[in-house]
Amino acid sequence: MSTAQQTGQVIRSLPDRRVVVQVGAQQITARASGLVPRPGTQALVSNPGQGWVVLSWQ
After folding, report:
1. Which domain of life is it from (predicted)?
2. Which of 12, 14, 34, 52 would you label with 26, given CA atoms 20 to 30 Å apart?
């Protein structure tokens, strides 16, 4: 099984450690573990098959 990875900009934070990431023309809701990236940061997100998760950000 391949894992889809995308890079985009965090545009807003949601409750329960989730963020909305703008990837191209689409907006992805991703879960973050630990610290949550702030809006305006670049985030690497991945979909291992059970929804999008934030892998890293800068």
Report:
1. Bacteria
2. 34
Number of domains comprising the chain: 1
The three-class DSSP label of residue 45 is strand
CATH of residue 44's domain is 2.40.50.140
Q: Could you tell me the pTM of the whole model? A: 0.88
CA separation for the pair 13, 17 (Å, rounded): 8
pLDDT at res. 1: 43
Give me the residue label for tokens 């991945």. 46
Q: What stretches of the chain show up as alpha helix (H) in DSSP?
A: none
**In whole angstroms, what is the distance from residue 40 CA to residue 50 CA?**
25
